[in-house]
């Protein structure tokens, strides 16, 4: 999770988030080179005293500075389009989780299992344990297996919410009457925190979500324990 003064991305916990970080770094390198070259040219033009009263046009340099930005944009556009298609790709899911946004909490339903559904509320500040995070921890986490293709179906019961987990590279609006879908694979165990990112009312800031990534064996044990309750 992000810490105070942290300016970079969270460590990616899924291949999609890692690809997003790679693309960001690639675009920043292109942007830095472009700004440096253009800034140097502008500074040199303003500081030198060169003049040529016979120079009326320069067709060659005009062709170069017209074509070069187009080529630079292609270096950004092609990786961007590739990533957009990767993000929309839905592989064969091994497990489906249905997420329903309410004012102001989340409900989870494990559609592949019978009668496993629960609500997830933010833990109030006065009930937090010493090792918990204020405004981020919940009473019931969404437990999912790692190294498994997961599909999340997202909707809402009242107003528009947004289910967002930055470490997984996942963000989808929860809209009443509509079912949105995201797909991801977690490549390491851990707790991944997120918050609603769509203004949804007075307590918009107080409906976080926590995804707990565990091994397949631990997930099956958790499913059995939930079924027995």
UniProtKB/TrEMBL annotation:
What's an example GO cellular component term for this entry? mitochondrial inner membrane
* GO terms classed as biological process: ATP synthesis coupled electron transport
Q: Where in the cell is it found?
A: Mitochondrion inner membrane
Q: Its Gene Ontology molecular function terms?
A: copper ion binding; cytochrome-c oxidase activity; oxidoreductase activity
Q: Which reaction does it catalyse?
A: 4 Fe(II)-[cytochrome c] + O2 + 8 H(+)(in) = 4 Fe(III)-[cytochrome c] + 2 H2O + 4 H(+)(out)
Coiled-coil ranges per UniProt:
none
Its placement in the membrane is given as: Multi-pass membrane protein
Q: Which keywords label this protein?
A: Copper, Electron transport, Magnesium, Membrane, Metal-binding, Mitochondrion, Mitochondrion inner membrane, Respiratory chain, Translocase, Transmembrane, Transmembrane helix, Transport
Q: Which family does it belong to?
A: Belongs to the cytochrome c oxidase subunit 2 family.
Query: What NCBIfam families does the entry give?
Result: CoxB (TIGR02866)
What does the function comment of this entry state? Component of the cytochrome c oxidase, the last enzyme in the mitochondrial electron transport chain which drives oxidative phosphorylation. The respiratory chain contains 3 multisubunit complexes succinate dehydrogenase (complex II, CII), ubiquinol-cytochrome c oxidoreductase (cytochrome b-c1 complex, complex III, CIII) and cytochrome c oxidase (complex IV, CIV), that cooperate to transfer electrons derived from NADH and succinate to molecular oxygen, creating an electrochemical gradient over the inner membrane that drives transmembrane transport and the ATP synthase.
Please state what the protein is called: Cytochrome c oxidase subunit 2
User: What is the originating organism of this protein?
Assistant: Pseudosquilla ciliata
